[in-house]
Fold:
Amino acid sequence: MAYVDGFVIAVPTANRRRFIDHANKANTVFMELGATRVLECWGDDVPKGETTDFRMAVKAKEDETVVFSWVEWPDKATRDAAMGRMRELMKTDDRCNPEKNPMPFDGKRMIFGGFEPVVEL
Structure:
């Protein structure tokens, strides 16, 4: 059964092009390691909530845009193997090395998790 990693981040709006370039480099690694699909979605209609919302979740500032992303895997075993391999590649592959391909956003405010699909239409 498929498996999904989901991410929400706040990216300085001025860094849109840098974010896209960063994602294009880094996400090719996910595909090489078995991901079936990667989507990076730039916030376009992200309303402010009264109790909680995407912006609050990542402590987005006024000059930041919320990005909602996910990586689809054929199964959890493939994803787990890929995550283990990613840790190794951070030392040897410039696409994964934060010094060579730095994140153009504050990674400490990223929220993420792995999810097992329960409904698919």
Summary: The chain has a mean pLDDT of 94. The chain is about 30% helix and 25% strand. The radius of gyration is 15 Å. The chain has one domain: 3-62+73-115.
